[in-house]
């Protein structure tokens, strides 16, 4: 059996980011993302957004505290986590999204300017000019015959 726990959110930050450090000097921040609902309830009295609690660690936390503020539209990829602790009135259960990747989509304060973006190393794009051996690699494939494939040969075209 395969278990998948993957969450993708796009919404606005409800308040400024407050960066904290653990006893081992690891960066962490808790934040809430207001995600608009696609459809409003039949009774227009209900909320039009869901408020999702999130937590970011290390570089993601540092990035958010440096570049994001209240109202910033962010994209969050992560996983749902539940935990509990003993509060004043008994056991308290918390459900939150642990952010693996955070991107700033639009910054309210930077209207019209280039808002900074952050993506994990797995999302970086390759630029040929950055690789000094790219030209020699291109020459290795210049003598190979090309394939003549029509769209009729493709199974799902």
Poorly predicted spans: 117-141
What's the average pLDDT?
Answer: 77
Q: Number of folding domains?
A: 1
Supply the helix-strand structural class: mainly beta
Task: Please tally the helical runs, counting DSSP H or I stretches of 4 or more residues.
Answer: 2
For the sheet with most strands, the description reads: 5 strands, mixed, barrel
Rg over CA atoms: 22 Å
Instruction: Determine the CATH superfamily.
Output: Nucleic acid-binding proteins
CATH architecture: Beta Barrel
Estimate the strand proportion.
Answer: 35-45%
What does the overall shape look like?
Answer: globular
User: What fold name stands as the CATH topology?
Assistant: OB fold (Dihydrolipoamide Acetyltransferase, E2P)
- Total count of strands: 6
What gap, in angstroms, lies between the N and C termini?
32 Å
Structure description:
The chain is mostly beta strands and 157 residues long. It has a single domain, classed as Nucleic acid-binding proteins (OB fold (Dihydrolipoamide Acetyltransferase, E2P), Beta Barrel). It has two helices and six strands; from the N terminus they run ββββαββα. It has a five-stranded mixed β-barrel with strand order 1-3-4-6-5. Strand 2 and strand 3 form a beta hairpin. The longest helix has 10 residues. The radius of gyration is 22 Å and the shape is globular. About 16% of the residues have low confidence.
């Amino acid at each position: 059996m395969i278990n998948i726990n993957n969450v993708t959110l796009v919404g606005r930050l409800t308040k400024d980011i407050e960066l904290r450090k653990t006893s081992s000097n690891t960066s962490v921040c808790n934040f809430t993302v207001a995600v608009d609902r696609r459809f409003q309830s039949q009774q227009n009295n209900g909320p039009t957004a869901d408020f999702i609690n999130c937590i970011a660690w290390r570089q993601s936390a540092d990035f958010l505290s440096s570049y994001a503020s209240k109202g910033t539209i962010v994209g969050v990829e992560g996983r749902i986590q539940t935990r509990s602790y003993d509060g004043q009135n008994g056991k308290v259960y918390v459900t939150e999204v642990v952010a693996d990747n955070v991107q700033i989509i639009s910054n309210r304060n930077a209207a019209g300017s280039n808002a900074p973006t952050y993506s994990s190393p797995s999302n970086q794009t390759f630029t040929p000019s950055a690789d000094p051996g790219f030209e020699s690699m291109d020459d290795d494939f210049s003598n190979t015959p090309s394939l003549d494939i029509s769209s009729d040969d493709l199974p799902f075209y």
